[in-house]
Write a structure and sequence with these properties.
10 helices; alpha/beta; 14 strands; single chain
């Protein structure tokens, strides 16, 4: 789809991947970039620089995908929609009813609104969680659904509903199956932070980073900046009724990840190995990037070392800025 002069709506556009997609869209001659977000996981801070561009607007009536009339109002005149909104993996594990409401019913509402308002193209944020543990490596898009957690189940449901809507209503869509995403603007507070942030927290405290198991578990770590680019590529592409891996195709074990973080930060602590505690999480997942490269023109370009350096620098600056703001109003740092 030609994005020049288009109106694009980003559902959940204030989140990690959504805000980086906005950054990439600003390099294109689009007419309007509308952010539809309830700001539960996303934040206005993620859009701080983007909002300086008059083309970027936050939908000011509300941004909840449960409110179908408001959602359809936001889609009025939209050429393309990106759907990022979802509860995260561990939230889905602990709160499956909420996960059903947001990830499944909410996705249905987005699809329904696209059909009602004649949206030309929808890019859906799926997940490599649909694959579960790898049966073969690297995993291409024909890999079986081997998922065993509720988050993955909601993403499988989203993909299945989209295919049904495509054949029933002609909705033009593609789904993106992100591998392990990391990068600037990633949450480093609360109960649901990612493994990289947990390791960096330990290093900041002068402690050893903890690796669950023996460290041999391996994943495909993809920089969030590349994920934003993948979304733009997917919106511009001509393929439809397809799902694509978004990853590097490169295997990194948790032991290698911890060693790299120790090297970059200059920390000389040894790795701490602990018993694995989450039976629902996967042990190995490396995606094949060939289909995305061939059909939507996306290839990840940021290697892990460079991506981690960017993340660590952003995290350091962000923490300093937060501490300065707290100090300015008399709160403890």
């Amino acid at each position: 789809m030609d994005l020049r002069g288009s109106k694009l709506v980003l559902v959940g556009g204030a989140g990690l991947i959504g805000s980086h997609t906005v950054d990439h869209l600003l390099n294109i001659d689009v007419k309007e970039i509308l952010i539809y977000d309830n700001f539960v996981r996303g934040s206005r801070e993620n859009l701080q620089e983007a909002l300086k561009d008059p083309r970027v607007k936050i939908y000011d009536v509300g941004g909840d995908i449960m409110q179908t009339d408001i959602l359809q109002s936001a889609f009025e005149g939209a050429d393309g929609v990106f759907h990022f909104a979802a509860l995260w993996l561990l939230q889905c594990h602990e709160y499956p009813r909420s996960a059903f409401d947001v990830n499944i019913r909410g996705t249905f509402n987005v699809m329904e609104a696209c059909v009602a308002k004649g949206v030309k193209r929808l890019v859906y944020s799926s997940s490599a969680s649909v694959y579960g543990d790898a049966v073969k490596e690297p995993m291409d898009e024909d890999h079986i659904y081997n998922n065993k957690n509720f988050y993955g189940a909601t993403k499988i449901a989203g993909e299945a509903m989209l295919r049904a809507f495509h054949h029933r209503y002609g909705i033009n869509y593609v789904g993106l199956r992100y591998m392990n995403v990391y990068g600037p603007r990633q949450d480093y507070h609360g109960a649901y932070i990612a493994v990289i942030m947990k390791m960096l927290d330990a290093i900041d405290r002068g402690q050893s980073p903890t690796v669950m198991g023996d460290g041999s578990e391996a994943f495909d770590f993809v920089a969030v900046e590349d994920c934003g680019l993948a979304n733009v590529c997917a919106m511009k592409a001509t393929s439809t009724d397809q799902n694509y891996n978004v990853g590097t195709g490169k295997r990194t074990s948790l032991k290698e990840l911890a060693e790299l973080l120790l090297e970059i930060t200059g920390c000389e602590k040894p790795i701490n190995y602990a018993p694995r505690s989450q039976a629902t999480l996967v042990r190995n997942r490396i995606g094949c990037p060939k289909k995305a490269s061939a059909e939507i023109g996306f290839t990840a370009s940021i290697d892990l070392r460079e991506g981690l350096k960017r993340l660590i620098e952003w995290r350091k600056n962000h923490k300093a800025a937060v501490a300065a703001r707290r100090k300015a109003v008399g709160l403890p740092e």
